[in-house]
Write a structure and sequence with these properties.
By secondary structure, this protein is of the alpha+beta class. The chain is built from eight helices and 23 strands. Bound molecules: zinc ion.
């Protein structure tokens, strides 16, 4: 009898809601989930985002898009290269194109390349436009090395960020590529899932206020591939964070922040990442690190040995910043304790002439979650001396 009265769609909906409420308020269906965007939402994104059923994940494309829109202002699609056939690649490109709304949710087409002749290293590649009609895989001859990938990205308006560089099975040989990497492989995951890919230990200089300690969250790791080794080899890298999610809905473990983005279009965010104007964090920690007019990720020369740095860190809602650490050439040279939502200050480091130095900040929250600004790459040229 009741079902006959429910031919009207409106009555049906009302009846359904009432039935659900009567059943104890268990609304097992839901309207589209629209969490109120936080002020900083547009800052944060993820490139190595969520794997779907196209490769080794469990979400549908629609579920991935819903999750990414809920947590981030920008993102890229990802799935494993050889698991994605031509038709699925077209579907991934469509997913990005149909859901991209510049400035609201900026969405890049991308996938995860695995270099068969690059030690199994993996790279999230993504494109400033709708992406090439066909992709190359890391098992394809000519595209199985970093240099092969770089050449292809150059021709297809793409760039790549190196994934989990210290993970056993995917460890990066930072000396194995030469060509134009700075423009086409400008970034690396400092954080993947919940693992820190920096190094096996955090090294502290005398008087810095810290003691050397082991990596609190190592992956099953080959540290020759760690981010520190890349920087020590003179690679200029920006830091990004990879969620690399394979499961059902959940709270992200990784956020990549944009420092002074050019704008919030695909082009603007793409070029901001290429310029290394990014930070990597485990929570929605906002980081601002600069020296004069230069910001995180910039490479520059100056004619004085002292680098003056201004930092300003804001903890995620409900948390405070407990510590900031200044890294010079991979070693902590200063630790400052804080107990405030918004921690800021200045610091000075003196650098030797004649070579490039890398300088960045780590911020630690009261819950132990961390963020890392992309390094500034600074050279001290002694005035009137040939450099
Ligand atoms: Zn992945």
């Amino acid at each position: 009898m009741i079902t006959h009265q429910m031919v009207d769609a409106g009555k049906f909906a009302l009846g359904f809601v009432a039935a659900a409420l009567l059943a104890g308020g268990l609304l097992f269906f839901s309207w589209p989930l629209e969490s109120p965007p936080a002020d900083d939402r547009a800052l944060f994104g993820v490139l190595h985002s969520v794997h779907t059923r196209f490769s080794d994940g469990v979400m549908s494309q629609a579920q991935r898009v819903g999750e990414l829109k809920r947590h981030y202002g920008w993102a890229a699609t990802v799935d494993h290269d050889v698991r994605v056939d031509d038709g699925e690649w077209t579907a991934l490109r469509d997913e990005a194109r149909k859901n991209n709304v510049d400035g609201v949710f900026t969405y890049f087409p991308g996938y995860e390349w695995k270099g068969a002749a690059a030690g199994g290293s993996e790279v999230t590649v993504f494109f400033v436009d709708d992406g090439p009609q066909s992709k190359v895989d890391g098992v394809d001859p000519g595209y199985d090395t970093f240099d092969g990938l770089i050449g292809w990205l150059k021709e297809n308006n793409g760039i790549g960020c190196v994934n989990h560089p210290a993970r056993a099975g995917n460890a990066v040989d930072w000396g194995s590529f030469e060509s134009d990497y700075e423009h086409y492989l400008p970034c690396v995951e400092m954080l993947n899932k919940v693992y820190y890919h920096w190094n096996d230990f955090w090294n502290c200089s005398a008087g810095s206020g810290c003691a050397t300690y082991r990596n609190p969250r190592p992956d099953g790791s080959v540290w020759a591939g760690g981010v520190l080794r890349g920087l020590e080899r003179g690679r200029r890298l920006g830091f990004v964070a990879g969620w690399d999610h394979h499961g059902i809905q959940g709270t992200p473990t990784a956020y990549t922040g944009l420092a002074n983005p050019y704008n919030r279009s695909r082009e603007g965010i793409f070029e901001t990442i290429r310029a290394r104007h990014t930070w990597a964090a485990e929570a929605r920690i906002v980081m601002d690190v600069r020296s004069g007019t230069k910001i995180m990720g910039d490479a520059f020369a100056q004619d004085a040995p002292t680098v003056r740095i201004v930092y300003n860190m804001t903890a995620e809602a409900g948390h405070i910043i407990s510590e900031t650490s200044l890294f010079l050439d991979g070693v902590i040279v200063n630790v400052t304790k804080h107990s405030t939502k918004n921690a800021y200050g200045t610091s000075e480091v003196t650098v030797a002439p004649g070579r490039e130095h890398f300088i960045f900040y780590e911020a630690v929250e009261d819950d132990g979650k961390r963020g890392w600004s992309s390094p500034m790459y600074v050279t001290y040229h002694v005035p009137d001396s040939p450099a």
